[in-house]
Write a structure and sequence with these properties.
506 residues; mainly beta; 1 helix; 31% strand
């Protein structure tokens, strides 16, 4: 399938601004350097060009009949966070028997647009924030975008049938490492951001507002260290959109370990000086992959709080918007360092926040898996039910179910250096915060399997049920549409997979 299969509805862009375009051939994919542009509602994925402005919030998705109990109920869904499941209008009009423009919200992910649901839709309570809806017989075709960053370019996979089948694009930026990806769905138009590293021209960040059809990069480097730091950007390791409370803020973690902040959706960034000027920074040491900040965790309720992690260095947190930072690594091991456990300097591989309680955090270390229930003040081991090697790179938390986490264990001894235990391909899931673990391998390759999964090469989407994804260093990508119970191959024979990110886009 060519790139055209990823076009959003075949609609064309419209803008009143002149477009300045430059060819940037060294990335192997066309980049348009141009002013920031607005896209009409008719150009959004899944939108119909025939829709009126009054009905612009209604995606046209294919609705298929399914067998669901008549009592299937969506109740008290928070619409302030732009949920893909239900969005309420502030005027609170009832929806029964009314046309799509007058209906209460969009139920796109599970049940299709309300315009496609006959009188089976009954609003029981309507406010500007919460809606109760009963739905019986219709379900939409979920549209999911999966970004796959590899050692030789970026691949975009798309499923329009609830993650049953996938179309995979040819590689973009085919001579570049793509270690970092984000699919930002906070606005009506999904934005894809990618950190690309060309071995000749160096690192940069590119942005697409049309699902990868075109990419833009400012004339000035969007990510660059100030002159007085005496540092040079070596790569982008993490891209993290902030919460809904800051819709234009995007963070980037880079090599050498530093945090950057953007207030224009990822078009330009400024160094977070509070972390860069920390007295520990000059003593942080590179891990096996480099000295990089690879984890960024904005607090979901407090914009002044954030946790970051780096290898090596450990976990650092701020409570004052980045002005000051302190290490929070008590209890996290550092087997490569003699003596007592250090305050900082651990080789933390990845950290994730619990779905329900942001004070509960999960950490995959160079050796061991840990949990903290007090915002990182103290960490306890939770790897008792995992293979005894207790090594690995990723840790992924379920986006809605508290206590549900995923990892991909590896063996780290010199005889079987970073291979899966017993050469078995298996994702391990805990549903009780790490007290017990289960190996999930239905649909995954048989033994022997020798490929590793890197720290950002596992992710979860925002669908219901949640999809879990991982990519391997031998170029295979797998998806589970039922939270890990069963797996299917999305793509194989790709280059070395470095990161994956997935999101529902329609």
């Amino acid at each position: 399938m060519g790139d055209s299969a990823l076009a959003p509805g075949g609609a064309t862009r419209q803008t009143g601004e002149p477009v300045s375009e430059k060819e940037v051939p060294h990335f192997g994919s066309r980049i348009r350097r141009q002013p920031r542009r607005s896209f009409p509602t008719t150009s959004l994925p899944g939108r119909s060009a025939s829709h009126s402005a009054n009905a612009a919030t209604w995606p046209i998705l294919r609705a298929d009949p399914v067998s669901r109990p008549a009592s299937a109920l969506i109740d008290r869904i928070d619409t302030d966070n732009h949920s893909p499941r239900l969005r309420a209008q502030s005027d609170g009009r009832a929806c029964r028997g009314s046309p799509p423009a007058a209906r209460v919200g969009t139920l796109a992910e599970q049940f299709g647009p309300l315009g496609a649901i006959p009188s089976a839709c009954r609003c029981r309570r309507v406010t500007s924030r919460f809606v109760s809806v009963a739905v019986t017989t219709w379900r939409s075709a979920m549209d999911v975008l999966l970004g796959i960053g590899t050692r030789k370019g970026l691949f975009l996979a798309r499923s329009r049938d609830g993650r049953k089948t996938w179309e995979v694009s040819p590689p973009q930026f085919p001579v570049a490492d793509v270690k970092a990806l984000a699919i930002d769905t906070r606005s009506e138009t999904p934005r894809v951001l990618a950190g690309v590293l060309n071995s000749h021209f160096g690192p940069t960040m590119v942005v697409s507002d049309d699902l990868g059809q075109t990419w833009s990069e400012p004339d000035d480097a969007p990510l660059a260290f100030p002159d007085d730091t005496d540092a040079a950007l070596q790569g982008v390791w993490q891209i993290k959109p902030a919460t809904e409370a800051e819709p234009d803020v995007v963070y980037a973690g880079v090599e050498p370990s530093a945090l950057f902040r953007s207030e224009d959706g990822g078009r330009s960034f400024e160094l977070v000086r509070g972390l860069w000027d920390h007295p520990h920074r000059t003593q942080w040491q590179p891990g096996g992959g480099g000295l990089a900040l690879h984890t960024i965790l904005p607090h979901p309720a407090d914009t002044r709080r954030m946790a970051v992690a780096m290898s090596t260095g450990g976990v650092y947190q701020t409570t004052d918007g980045g002005e000051s930072w302190r290490p929070t690594n008590k209890g996290v091991t550092a087997d490569f360092m003699p003596g007592e456990l250090p305050e900082w300097g651990q080789c933390v591989h990845k950290v994730a926040l619990d779905a329900a309680d942001p004070d509960t955090m999960y950490l995959q270390n160079h050796g061991g898996v840990f949990r903290s229930t007090d915002s990182g003040e103290r960490w306890q081991s939770i790897d008792g039910g995992l293979p005894p090697s207790n090594f690995g790179f990723p840790i992924v938390a379920h986006p809605r179910r508290p206590g549900v986490i995923y990892t991909f264990p590896l063996v780290a001894d010199m005889d079987r250096f970073r291979f899966p235990p017993d050469a078995k391909c298996a994702v391990y899931r805990s549903e009780d915060g790490g007290q017990t673990w289960s190996a999930l391998s239905d649909g995954l390759p048989e033994v022997p399997f020798w490929a590793a999964v890197m720290r950002d090469a596992m992710c979860a989407d925002d669908a219901e049920p949640t999809g879990i994804y991982f990519g391997t260093r031998n170029g295979e990508v797998y998806c589970s549409a039922d939270e890990g119970d069963h797996w299917q191959l999305v793509a194989d024979k790709l280059p070395d997979v470095l990161c994956v990110r997935a999101a529902v886009i329609g």
